[in-house]
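[Solved] Which block belongs to which protein?

Original post:
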Amino acid sequence: MYKYVLFDLDGTLTDSKEGIIKSVAYALEQMGESTEGRLDQHTIVGPPLLTTFEDVYGFSPEKARQTYAYFQERYSTIGKFENRAFDGIVPMLKAMKEAGIRSFVATSKPQVHAEAICQKFGIDPYVEAIAGPAVGGTDTKADVMRRILAGLGPVEKGDAVMVGDRRFDIIGAHELGLPVIYVTYGYGDEAERKAFQPDYTAATVGDLKQLLLQA
Protein backbone atom coordinates (compact mmCIF):
# COMPACT_ATOMS: atom_id res chain seq x y z
CA MET A 1 0.00 0.00 0.00
CA TYR A 2 1.35 3.44 -0.93
CA LYS A 3 1.98 5.96 1.84
CA TYR A 4 1.66 9.03 -0.39
CA VAL A 5 -0.68 9.49 -3.35
CA LEU A 6 -0.40 12.50 -5.65
CA PHE A 7 -3.55 13.14 -7.67
CA ASP A 8 -4.04 15.14 -10.81
CA LEU A 9 -7.25 17.20 -10.58
CA ASP A 10 -8.98 17.63 -13.97
CA GLY A 11 -10.11 14.28 -15.34
CA THR A 12 -8.86 12.40 -12.29
CA LEU A 13 -10.68 13.79 -9.26
CA THR A 14 -13.17 16.06 -11.03
CA ASP A 15 -15.08 16.14 -14.29
CA SER A 16 -14.15 19.68 -15.27
CA LYS A 17 -14.52 19.62 -19.02
CA GLU A 18 -17.66 21.77 -19.25
CA GLY A 19 -16.14 24.84 -17.61
CA ILE A 20 -12.83 24.54 -19.42
CA ILE A 21 -14.35 24.01 -22.86
CA LYS A 22 -16.83 26.86 -22.45
CA SER A 23 -14.08 29.19 -21.21
CA VAL A 24 -11.74 28.32 -24.09
CA ALA A 25 -14.63 28.94 -26.50
CA TYR A 26 -15.20 32.33 -24.87
CA ALA A 27 -11.50 33.20 -25.18
CA LEU A 28 -11.35 32.25 -28.85
CA GLU A 29 -14.47 34.27 -29.59
CA GLN A 30 -13.00 37.30 -27.81
CA MET A 31 -9.90 36.94 -29.99
CA GLY A 32 -12.04 36.78 -33.15
CA GLU A 33 -10.96 33.17 -33.70
CA SER A 34 -13.08 30.25 -34.87
CA THR A 35 -13.87 27.53 -32.33
CA GLU A 36 -14.46 24.90 -35.00
CA GLY A 37 -12.31 21.83 -34.44
CA ARG A 38 -10.59 23.42 -31.45
CA LEU A 39 -12.72 22.30 -28.49
CA ASP A 40 -12.02 18.57 -28.30
CA GLN A 41 -11.68 17.53 -24.66
CA HIS A 42 -8.67 15.33 -25.43
CA THR A 43 -6.83 18.41 -26.70
CA ILE A 44 -7.70 21.14 -24.22
CA VAL A 45 -8.53 19.48 -20.89
CA GLY A 46 -5.45 18.59 -18.86
CA PRO A 47 -2.42 20.10 -20.60
CA PRO A 48 -1.27 23.62 -19.72
CA LEU A 49 -3.40 25.91 -21.87
CA LEU A 50 -0.56 28.23 -22.84
CA THR A 51 1.15 25.19 -24.34
CA THR A 52 -2.02 24.19 -26.18
CA PHE A 53 -2.56 27.69 -27.55
CA GLU A 54 0.98 27.82 -28.91
CA ASP A 55 1.70 24.22 -29.93
CA VAL A 56 -1.76 23.10 -31.09
CA TYR A 57 -3.44 26.32 -32.21
CA GLY A 58 -0.21 27.79 -33.55
CA PHE A 59 -0.55 31.12 -31.74
CA SER A 60 2.46 33.32 -31.07
CA PRO A 61 3.52 33.57 -27.41
CA GLU A 62 1.95 37.04 -27.18
CA LYS A 63 -1.32 35.89 -28.75
CA ALA A 64 -1.38 32.81 -26.52
CA ARG A 65 -1.02 34.99 -23.41
CA GLN A 66 -3.87 37.26 -24.53
CA THR A 67 -6.09 34.24 -25.25
CA TYR A 68 -5.24 32.85 -21.84
CA ALA A 69 -6.17 36.18 -20.22
CA TYR A 70 -9.60 36.00 -21.85
CA PHE A 71 -9.91 32.37 -20.73
CA GLN A 72 -9.23 33.46 -17.15
CA GLU A 73 -11.91 36.18 -17.38
CA ARG A 74 -14.61 33.54 -17.65
CA TYR A 75 -12.95 30.57 -15.95
CA SER A 76 -11.98 32.37 -12.74
CA THR A 77 -15.53 33.53 -12.11
CA ILE A 78 -17.84 30.93 -13.68
CA GLY A 79 -16.00 28.12 -15.39
CA LYS A 80 -14.13 26.62 -12.47
CA PHE A 81 -17.42 25.73 -10.79
CA GLU A 82 -18.93 24.15 -13.93
CA ASN A 83 -17.44 21.01 -12.52
CA ARG A 84 -18.13 18.04 -10.22
CA ALA A 85 -16.22 15.37 -8.35
CA PHE A 86 -16.44 12.04 -10.14
CA ASP A 87 -18.83 9.66 -8.42
CA GLY A 88 -17.02 7.79 -5.65
CA ILE A 89 -14.01 10.11 -5.43
CA VAL A 90 -14.82 11.78 -2.10
CA PRO A 91 -15.70 8.48 -0.35
CA MET A 92 -12.46 6.97 -1.72
CA LEU A 93 -10.38 9.87 -0.38
CA LYS A 94 -12.12 9.56 2.98
CA ALA A 95 -11.36 5.82 3.12
CA MET A 96 -7.74 6.49 2.21
CA LYS A 97 -7.37 9.05 4.98
CA GLU A 98 -8.90 6.64 7.48
CA ALA A 99 -6.38 4.01 6.32
CA GLY A 100 -3.48 6.40 6.99
CA ILE A 101 -2.69 7.11 3.34
CA ARG A 102 -1.69 10.73 2.76
CA SER A 103 -3.23 12.36 -0.33
CA PHE A 104 -2.12 15.44 -2.29
CA VAL A 105 -3.22 17.29 -5.42
CA ALA A 106 -0.61 18.03 -8.10
CA THR A 107 -2.20 19.91 -10.99
CA SER A 108 -1.34 22.06 -14.00
CA LYS A 109 -4.33 24.23 -13.10
CA PRO A 110 -3.47 27.47 -11.28
CA GLN A 111 -3.22 26.65 -7.59
CA VAL A 112 -5.71 29.35 -6.58
CA HIS A 113 -8.40 27.74 -8.76
CA ALA A 114 -7.52 24.21 -7.66
CA GLU A 115 -7.89 25.23 -4.01
CA ALA A 116 -11.32 26.76 -4.65
CA ILE A 117 -12.48 23.69 -6.57
CA CYS A 118 -11.30 21.25 -3.90
CA GLN A 119 -13.09 23.27 -1.25
CA LYS A 120 -16.30 23.57 -3.29
CA PHE A 121 -16.58 19.87 -4.12
CA GLY A 122 -15.63 18.30 -0.79
CA ILE A 123 -12.10 17.20 -1.64
CA ASP A 124 -10.20 19.63 0.57
CA PRO A 125 -10.73 17.83 3.93
CA TYR A 126 -8.99 14.72 2.62
CA VAL A 127 -5.87 16.17 0.97
CA GLU A 128 -2.89 17.55 2.85
CA ALA A 129 -1.66 19.96 0.19
CA ILE A 130 -2.68 21.31 -3.19
CA ALA A 131 0.07 22.37 -5.58
CA GLY A 132 -0.20 24.08 -8.95
CA PRO A 133 1.39 26.94 -10.86
CA ALA A 134 0.56 30.61 -10.45
CA VAL A 135 -1.98 32.03 -12.89
CA GLY A 136 -0.11 32.23 -16.18
CA GLY A 137 2.82 30.32 -14.68
CA THR A 138 4.94 27.83 -16.56
CA ASP A 139 5.58 25.13 -13.94
CA THR A 140 5.65 21.65 -15.46
CA LYS A 141 3.80 18.76 -13.87
CA ALA A 142 7.16 17.50 -12.59
CA ASP A 143 7.83 20.90 -10.98
CA VAL A 144 4.50 20.76 -9.15
CA MET A 145 5.03 17.19 -8.00
CA ARG A 146 8.56 18.02 -6.89
CA ARG A 147 7.22 20.73 -4.57
CA ILE A 148 4.94 18.25 -2.86
CA LEU A 149 7.65 15.62 -2.50
CA ALA A 150 10.09 18.19 -1.10
CA GLY A 151 7.70 18.81 1.77
CA LEU A 152 7.67 15.13 2.70
CA GLY A 153 11.38 14.72 3.32
CA PRO A 154 13.05 11.51 2.11
CA VAL A 155 10.55 9.31 0.25
CA GLU A 156 11.53 5.68 -0.14
CA LYS A 157 11.12 4.01 -3.51
CA GLY A 158 7.66 2.50 -3.72
CA ASP A 159 6.14 4.78 -1.07
CA ALA A 160 4.57 7.30 -3.48
CA VAL A 161 2.50 7.09 -6.65
CA MET A 162 1.04 9.59 -9.13
CA VAL A 163 -2.54 9.21 -10.35
CA GLY A 164 -3.52 11.01 -13.54
CA ASP A 165 -5.23 10.86 -16.90
CA ARG A 166 -2.86 12.54 -19.37
CA ARG A 167 0.65 12.07 -20.72
CA PHE A 168 1.94 15.00 -18.66
CA ASP A 169 1.18 13.02 -15.50
CA ILE A 170 3.13 10.04 -16.81
CA ILE A 171 6.05 12.11 -18.08
CA GLY A 172 6.33 14.13 -14.87
CA ALA A 173 6.08 11.15 -12.56
CA HIS A 174 8.59 9.07 -14.48
CA GLU A 175 10.98 12.04 -14.52
CA LEU A 176 10.89 11.88 -10.72
CA GLY A 177 11.04 8.11 -10.54
CA LEU A 178 7.44 7.59 -9.44
CA PRO A 179 5.07 4.94 -10.75
CA VAL A 180 1.84 6.12 -12.39
CA ILE A 181 -1.74 4.92 -12.24
CA TYR A 182 -3.47 6.14 -15.41
CA VAL A 183 -7.23 6.54 -15.08
CA THR A 184 -8.93 5.74 -18.36
CA TYR A 185 -12.20 7.34 -17.26
CA GLY A 186 -10.45 10.72 -17.63
CA TYR A 187 -9.61 12.85 -20.67
CA GLY A 188 -6.76 10.94 -22.21
CA ASP A 189 -7.22 8.26 -24.84
CA GLU A 190 -5.95 4.80 -25.68
CA ALA A 191 -3.36 6.11 -28.11
CA GLU A 192 -1.86 8.34 -25.41
CA ARG A 193 -1.83 5.48 -22.91
CA LYS A 194 -0.03 3.18 -25.34
CA ALA A 195 2.47 5.86 -26.35
CA PHE A 196 3.49 6.87 -22.82
CA GLN A 197 3.04 3.58 -20.94
CA PRO A 198 1.83 4.14 -17.39
CA ASP A 199 2.62 1.49 -14.81
CA TYR A 200 -1.00 0.68 -13.99
CA THR A 201 -4.42 1.58 -15.33
CA ALA A 202 -7.80 2.04 -13.65
CA ALA A 203 -10.96 2.08 -15.76
CA THR A 204 -13.25 3.28 -12.96
CA VAL A 205 -13.03 5.03 -9.60
CA GLY A 206 -13.81 1.64 -8.06
CA ASP A 207 -10.78 0.12 -9.79
CA LEU A 208 -8.63 3.02 -8.57
CA LYS A 209 -9.84 2.58 -5.01
CA GLN A 210 -8.97 -1.12 -5.17
CA LEU A 211 -5.45 -0.37 -6.41
CA LEU A 212 -4.80 2.26 -3.73
CA LEU A 213 -6.38 0.47 -0.78
CA GLN A 214 -5.59 -3.08 -1.91
CA ALA A 215 -9.16 -3.96 -0.95
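(Second protein starts here: sequence line, then its C-alpha coordinates.)
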Amino acid sequence: MASRERSPALRIGIISDTHGSLDPRAYAALADCDHIIHAGDICGPAILRELETLAPVTAVLGNNDFDEYGSEVGHFAHPVLGGVRFLVGHKPGDVRVSFAGSAALAPGDPLPDVIVHGHTHVPELVVGPAARPASIYLCPGAVYRPRSDFGRTIAKMDVEDGRILHTWIENLDGKVLLEA
Protein backbone atom coordinates (compact mmCIF):
# COMPACT_ATOMS: atom_id res chain seq x y z
CA MET A 1 0.00 0.00 0.00
CA ALA A 2 1.48 3.35 -1.07
CA SER A 3 1.74 6.02 1.57
CA ARG A 4 -0.17 9.22 0.97
CA GLU A 5 2.16 12.19 0.63
CA ARG A 6 1.20 15.23 2.64
CA SER A 7 1.43 18.57 0.94
CA PRO A 8 3.58 21.12 2.76
CA ALA A 9 1.85 24.02 4.49
CA LEU A 10 1.30 27.12 2.40
CA ARG A 11 2.30 30.45 3.94
CA ILE A 12 0.13 33.38 2.94
CA GLY A 13 1.20 36.97 3.53
CA ILE A 14 -1.55 39.54 3.90
CA ILE A 15 -0.90 43.24 3.43
CA SER A 16 -2.98 46.36 2.96
CA ASP A 17 -2.85 50.11 2.58
CA THR A 18 0.61 50.54 1.08
CA HIS A 19 -0.52 53.83 -0.52
CA GLY A 20 2.18 53.70 -3.18
CA SER A 21 5.07 52.99 -0.81
CA LEU A 22 6.21 49.48 0.07
CA ASP A 23 8.32 49.70 3.21
CA PRO A 24 11.49 47.57 2.68
CA ARG A 25 10.78 45.87 6.02
CA ALA A 26 7.37 44.76 4.73
CA TYR A 27 8.99 43.38 1.58
CA ALA A 28 11.52 41.48 3.71
CA ALA A 29 8.80 40.19 6.06
CA LEU A 30 6.87 38.73 3.11
CA ALA A 31 9.92 36.95 1.64
CA ASP A 32 8.94 33.60 3.21
CA CYS A 33 5.41 33.64 1.74
CA ASP A 34 4.09 31.34 -0.97
CA HIS A 35 1.23 33.71 -1.87
CA ILE A 36 0.49 37.35 -1.01
CA ILE A 37 -2.92 39.00 -0.61
CA HIS A 38 -3.11 42.81 -0.89
CA ALA A 39 -6.38 44.15 0.55
CA GLY A 40 -6.43 47.45 -1.35
CA ASP A 41 -5.17 51.02 -1.40
CA ILE A 42 -2.22 49.78 -3.43
CA CYS A 43 -1.81 53.17 -5.14
CA GLY A 44 0.52 52.10 -7.92
CA PRO A 45 1.12 49.07 -10.15
CA ALA A 46 4.80 49.08 -9.17
CA ILE A 47 3.81 47.82 -5.70
CA LEU A 48 2.20 44.70 -7.16
CA ARG A 49 5.14 44.10 -9.51
CA GLU A 50 7.52 44.33 -6.56
CA LEU A 51 5.43 41.90 -4.48
CA GLU A 52 5.22 39.51 -7.44
CA THR A 53 9.02 39.10 -7.27
CA LEU A 54 8.37 37.26 -4.00
CA ALA A 55 5.22 35.22 -4.71
CA PRO A 56 1.97 35.24 -6.71
CA VAL A 57 -0.28 38.11 -5.62
CA THR A 58 -4.04 38.42 -5.27
CA ALA A 59 -5.10 42.07 -4.91
CA VAL A 60 -8.27 44.14 -4.69
CA LEU A 61 -8.98 47.79 -5.37
CA GLY A 62 -9.19 50.20 -2.47
CA ASN A 63 -10.95 53.54 -2.30
CA ASN A 64 -7.72 55.25 -3.45
CA ASP A 65 -7.12 52.88 -6.39
CA PHE A 66 -8.20 53.24 -9.98
CA ASP A 67 -8.59 50.72 -12.80
CA GLU A 68 -4.88 50.89 -13.59
CA TYR A 69 -4.12 47.29 -12.64
CA GLY A 70 -6.01 45.50 -15.38
CA SER A 71 -8.96 43.17 -15.17
CA GLU A 72 -7.32 40.84 -12.64
CA VAL A 73 -7.69 43.40 -9.83
CA GLY A 74 -11.32 44.13 -8.97
CA HIS A 75 -13.28 45.18 -5.92
CA PHE A 76 -13.40 41.65 -4.53
CA ALA A 77 -11.30 38.50 -4.81
CA HIS A 78 -12.21 34.91 -3.92
CA PRO A 79 -8.95 32.94 -3.98
CA VAL A 80 -8.76 29.37 -2.73
CA LEU A 81 -5.29 28.80 -1.29
CA GLY A 82 -4.25 25.50 0.23
CA GLY A 83 -7.90 24.46 0.11
CA VAL A 84 -8.98 27.47 2.22
CA ARG A 85 -11.59 29.84 0.72
CA PHE A 86 -10.87 33.57 1.10
CA LEU A 87 -13.07 36.60 0.57
CA VAL A 88 -11.00 39.76 0.11
CA GLY A 89 -12.27 43.32 -0.15
CA HIS A 90 -11.04 46.71 0.96
CA LYS A 91 -13.75 48.14 3.21
CA PRO A 92 -14.94 46.07 6.18
CA GLY A 93 -18.62 46.71 5.48
CA ASP A 94 -18.23 45.40 1.94
CA VAL A 95 -17.02 41.96 3.03
CA ARG A 96 -19.26 41.33 6.03
CA VAL A 97 -21.64 38.47 5.30
CA SER A 98 -25.06 38.49 6.98
CA PHE A 99 -28.27 36.52 6.59
CA ALA A 100 -29.19 39.00 3.86
CA GLY A 101 -26.01 38.07 1.98
CA SER A 102 -23.16 40.30 0.87
CA ALA A 103 -22.29 42.45 -2.13
CA ALA A 104 -19.06 40.46 -2.28
CA LEU A 105 -20.75 37.09 -2.85
CA ALA A 106 -23.06 36.03 -5.66
CA PRO A 107 -26.01 33.75 -4.88
CA GLY A 108 -24.72 30.21 -4.63
CA ASP A 109 -21.10 31.21 -3.90
CA PRO A 110 -19.58 29.11 -1.13
CA LEU A 111 -19.09 30.86 2.18
CA PRO A 112 -15.51 31.93 2.90
CA ASP A 113 -13.29 30.37 5.53
CA VAL A 114 -11.36 33.65 5.89
CA ILE A 115 -12.57 37.21 5.37
CA VAL A 116 -9.86 39.85 4.75
CA HIS A 117 -10.24 43.61 4.56
CA GLY A 118 -8.08 46.71 4.73
CA HIS A 119 -9.08 50.40 4.89
CA THR A 120 -9.11 50.94 8.67
CA HIS A 121 -5.30 50.87 9.05
CA VAL A 122 -5.93 49.06 12.36
CA PRO A 123 -4.93 45.38 12.74
CA GLU A 124 -7.80 43.09 13.68
CA LEU A 125 -7.93 39.32 14.15
CA VAL A 126 -11.34 37.87 15.03
CA VAL A 127 -12.11 34.17 15.50
CA GLY A 128 -15.12 32.28 16.78
CA PRO A 129 -18.76 33.39 16.61
CA ALA A 130 -17.84 37.05 15.92
CA ALA A 131 -16.10 35.98 12.67
CA ARG A 132 -19.08 34.03 11.33
CA PRO A 133 -19.78 32.79 8.77
CA ALA A 134 -15.99 32.62 8.37
CA SER A 135 -13.56 31.02 10.80
CA ILE A 136 -11.33 34.11 10.72
CA TYR A 137 -12.07 37.76 10.01
CA LEU A 138 -8.97 39.92 9.74
CA CYS A 139 -7.43 43.21 8.78
CA PRO A 140 -3.64 43.14 8.47
CA GLY A 141 -3.39 46.78 9.55
CA ALA A 142 -1.39 49.13 7.37
CA VAL A 143 2.10 49.44 5.97
CA TYR A 144 1.57 53.18 5.45
CA ARG A 145 0.14 55.56 8.06
CA PRO A 146 -0.97 53.07 10.72
CA ARG A 147 -3.78 54.20 13.02
CA SER A 148 -2.96 52.16 16.10
CA ASP A 149 -0.24 51.77 18.69
CA PHE A 150 0.83 48.57 16.87
CA GLY A 151 2.61 50.60 14.18
CA ARG A 152 3.12 49.26 10.65
CA THR A 153 1.84 45.70 10.39
CA ILE A 154 1.20 42.72 8.12
CA ALA A 155 -0.54 39.39 8.69
CA LYS A 156 0.52 35.84 7.90
CA MET A 157 -1.35 32.58 7.78
CA ASP A 158 -0.27 28.97 7.37
CA VAL A 159 -2.81 26.70 5.66
CA GLU A 160 -2.77 23.09 4.56
CA ASP A 161 -5.31 20.72 3.04
CA GLY A 162 -8.24 23.06 3.69
CA ARG A 163 -7.20 23.79 7.28
CA ILE A 164 -5.98 27.02 8.82
CA LEU A 165 -3.00 26.04 10.94
CA HIS A 166 -1.85 29.38 12.37
CA THR A 167 -2.66 33.06 11.83
CA TRP A 168 -0.83 36.05 13.21
CA ILE A 169 -0.31 39.78 12.82
CA GLU A 170 3.20 41.12 13.26
CA ASN A 171 4.81 44.52 13.15
CA LEU A 172 7.53 45.22 10.62
CA ASP A 173 10.17 44.44 13.22
CA GLY A 174 8.86 40.85 13.32
CA LYS A 175 7.16 41.06 16.72
CA VAL A 176 3.95 39.01 16.84
CA LEU A 177 1.13 41.22 18.12
CA LEU A 178 -2.01 39.09 17.65
CA GLU A 179 -2.38 35.40 16.86
CA ALA A 180 -4.89 32.60 16.55
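Accepted answer:
You had them paired correctly. Confirming on the second one: The helical segments are 24-29, 45-52, 92-95.
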